Each structure stands twice: as C-alpha cells, then as structure tokens.
Amino acid sequence: MKHAAWIIMMLALAFIGAAGAQAQTPSDPFKKLLDDEWARRLRENPLFATSVGDHSMDDKLPSVTIADYERREKDTREFVKRLEAIDRAKLSDTDRINYDIFGRVLRDRITDSEFKGYLMPITNREGFHTDYPQLPDIVPLETAKDYDNYCARLEATQTYFKQQIDLMRAGLKAGYVLPKVVMTGLEDTVSPHVVDDPAKSLLYAPFEKFPDMIGAKDRARLTERGKKAIMTSVVPAFRDLRDFFAKEYIPGGRESIACSDLPNGKTYYEFLVREYTTLDKTPKEIHETGLSEVKRIHGEMDAVIAKTGFKGTFAEFVQFLRTDPRFYTTDPQQLMKETAFVLKKIDGQLPTLFKTLPRQPYGIKPIPDFMAPKTTTAYYERGAGDGTRAGCYRVNLYDLKSRPLYEIEALSLHEAVPGHHLQNAIAMELPDVPMFRRYEWITAFGEGWGLYSERLGLEMGLYQDPYSDFGRLSYEMWRAMRLVVDTGMHYFGWTRQQAIDYMAANGALSMRNIEAEVDRYIAWPGQAVAYKTGELKIRELRDYATKELGPKFDVREFHDVVLWSGAVPLDVLDANVKAWVAKKKQG
Fold this sequence. Notes:
Blueprint: H1 2-23, H2 27-44, H3 46-51, H4 66-84, H5 93-114, H6 128-131, H7 144-155, H8 157-174, H9 216-249, H10 265-277, H11 283-308, H12 314-323, H13 332-353, E1 362-366, E2 378-381, E3 391-395, H14 408-415, H15 420-428, H16 435-439, H17 443-459, H18 466-491, H19 496-506, H20 511-523, H21 530-549, H22 555-563, H23 570-585
Parallel strand pairs: 1-3
Antiparallel strand pairs: 2-3
C-alpha cells in the first residue's frame, strides 16, 4: 500500500510539473529577461535606482572604472543573445514592440561602448561634477536612516570622482577628449565646491534643517558625520577634479572640434546621428533637411516682422530685439514671476488638447548659481518614480540681458507643459509596460515632443503678441539650424566661427546663447539633430491622421496615442499612429 501511495504521489507531481511547463507562454522568458536586465541596471547605477523609487541602495554610488564598463558591455552582449534566442513571432503585438525597443536600446549601448564614449563622461556644461552638488534634491531625507545613507554617499565621493578622473585620463591617452575651445571656464563649475567650511558646501544643506521626526541626539550625530564627510571626501574630490581640469584635461584638449577627428570618428558620428534620431539617416540627409527648414521658417519670420510694422532688414530687426530694454527685465524675481504666469495660463488650456493628464505635478526653480553661466536658458528635471518629488522646471537667472521675455512662452511650452513634464510624468505612470519603458529616454521622441509642444501654443491662444510669435519661430529656427551646424562641424569641416556666424545670421538668439549653443554641439555631437527630426515626424503623423480621418479626427485622442505609449523610436511611433487611424476608420 505504501508503495502504491508513493507511485500515485510521484505521478501527481509529474502531472503538476508537466502542467506547469505547458502553462509557460512564449512571453515568460522575455519577461524574465526584461526583469533581469532591469535589476542589473538598478544594481549598476544606485543613483538611478534612487531616482526611480528603488531605495535598496540609497547608501551607494556607481562604480565607473574601465573594468566596470568592459564588464557591462560583456553583460549586455549576453542579454542580446538571450533576446535573440526568443522567437519574436510568437510574442503578442505589445511584446513585439517591447522586444524591438529593448533590442535597439541594448545594441546602441554596445556600439557606444565599442566607440569608448564612456572615456568622455562630461560635456563642457554638464556631467557628474554638476549633478553631484544637487544630490540633496534627488534623495530621500526624511528619517535618520535616510541621513545615514546620504552621509555614506558623501563619504564615497572621493572614490567616485577618482574613478571619473581615471576615465578622462585614459581618454586623454587614447584621443577621446573634449576640444580645448569649449573647456574655457570648466574649472569654474568645480571651484565653488572647494570650501574651507563644511557649512559653505551645497551638500551641507540637509543638515541645516532636519525633519521633526529626527531627534536631537541623531541630529548632532548626523551633523558631525556630514561635516566630516564633506571635509575629508567631498572637498578633496572637487579639489582633485579642479586640479585635474586645470593641469591635465584642459591643456590636453583637442585642437580640432569635429567628432570625425576622434578615433574612427566619422563612423562614430554616423552612428550617433542614427542613435539620436532613431532613423537610418545620413549626416548629409540631416544637413539638407536643416537647410530646407531654415529657408521655410525664414519666410514665416519675415511675415511676422511685417506685422510689427518694423522698417528695416532682418538683421536690423534682430539687433532691435537683442538691444531694446522693453524685452528684458533686470529683476531675477520678475523673470520667475513672468514665467510662472505663463505656465498657469498653459495649465488652464491643457484639457482642450489632452484627453488624459498625469497625476504628478511640477514646480519651478532657478538653475543653481554654480552652473548657470555654462548652461542653457532652462531645462526640466524629471520627478521621482515613487511620486515623492515633483517634476521641476529650472530657469536660468544669470545674465538677464540674454533672457528675452518674448521667449518665455515657447520655452515654457517645451521644457514644462505640455512638453517634457507631460511626456515624462505620463511615461512613469504607464500601466502594463516593462519598467525600462517608463524611464527610457529616446531623444528624438522626447525632444521632438518638446519642440512640437511649442507650436501647440498657437492652439492654446498664446503668442498674441507678434514678438512672442517671433520668439516661437526663433526657437523653431534654432532647432532647424542645429541640423545644419551640428552636421557642418562634425562631418563637413565647419569651423566654430562658421557655425556662430550662420546662427547669428539666421536666428534671433542672443550672442551669448548662440556661442553657448555652438559649444554645446561641439561637446555633445549628434544630440542636437534629434529635436527637429522628431518634431517633423510628429507633425507629419498629425497631418496624416487629420487627412485620413477627416471629421473623425480628435486631437485629444491623437495626443493620447503619441504620449501614452511612452518614449518610442520614430518608426514605432509611426506604426502606433497608423494603427490607431486604421482602427478609427473601421469605426
């Protein structure tokens, strides 16, 4: 009897095992692959993990040695092998999209690693050295444990910075280094953090005001730990970086500006153009599109100038805009107030163009003083993935004579709403998508959406003043010129001055902004061509949907289709919109 019972039990277990095996779907190994790679991504970058709401490594910083990058490239190749072993045809329609995007992301990482892009971990205006002083703004600081985690990160600063310096030093030896011309003043972004008193450090701010739940004993302990960490790790890290910039990196910078002058640089730039646009476009095609768009936008700008009644040439009108005091404020708070007023007007119009809005709010803050002289007019910071921190629109208050008021509407539409905030907040709230889809930044989509959003101001009733409408066109022209000057400098042999002269002749940006922008393109090849490329695709798809659907076209539904699939390559966006159009036509 016991033997018979044992046989029955084993048969039952075998049946259960067989049923379990039969229950596995083709999507199961794909889901496992996505989960494994996401866990690897969080493990490799604890700062990113914190930003998306995973707090299991809040006491750690990433390790960024050359060996780490080589290991990550090897790991990524293994993930690609696992992906290619999965039969794409057996996946659901949704998972096939995830499969394609995931594959593109992994292969682009491998290619960038092959070109050793990691040996240039900074641009002329941003990188780990500008992100790090803003650490208090992106980490949880509510409990004593949070503060201990924060202190642990401060204590690890010197090791983290040394690894970054080692990368750049290796880049110097191998020829992967920024051009010397764009590194003027680079050490000025670091020097403010070399302090003789811990209380003067931006990283000391959390110790000046503790949450009520942290008691006096813990406050005293944490303050002392924080002071020690700042003076023994943070300050030496910034001092070493400042000295490295001054003594090695800047003197060792490239004399040339072109990406094509890097090792295997021409092929690298061709890859960057494909990566940033997500299209199989050549630099020549991008350049020619830019020339065409510049010509078209010029015609619209001339029409707006005529509306103002101005008598004179285009160059004279631009000079008038750059110098007339009516277009500028001398009060930083006034610029913030004007911007906030515009944002509130936009907020009230969002439901007219958007059917589904995200829950996460956004705020407005100045760009930190230490980085304002070297950075752009404004930018957006994504909120926390766990909802504990809102999105933030950062405004540059440095050199107010280069921040014209007539640009506020276009700038705010792009950087805040309905631009980057809507796109990022919606992506983080997407239901039923892999985690990587909620946080993957695809430049052509994200920046294309931002530029497309500037045009939406016309439908919201903004740009009532012809000068602000000219500001909108000036911003569109700026992005069109990027197609010309980025490819011009990195592929066709343009000089820095040639790019500056081209932008000054065709646009209305202040000379400070033009020079800063050209230096940005030099230091960050390929990225700038994504904006206009993405915007042209979104406008093309909207025109297609409007024509195909006629009275059935609903712009609010169209925007849902664009945004509520998250950031996607432009070919996937094309397929999504056309599938929606086909479904609408079927009733």
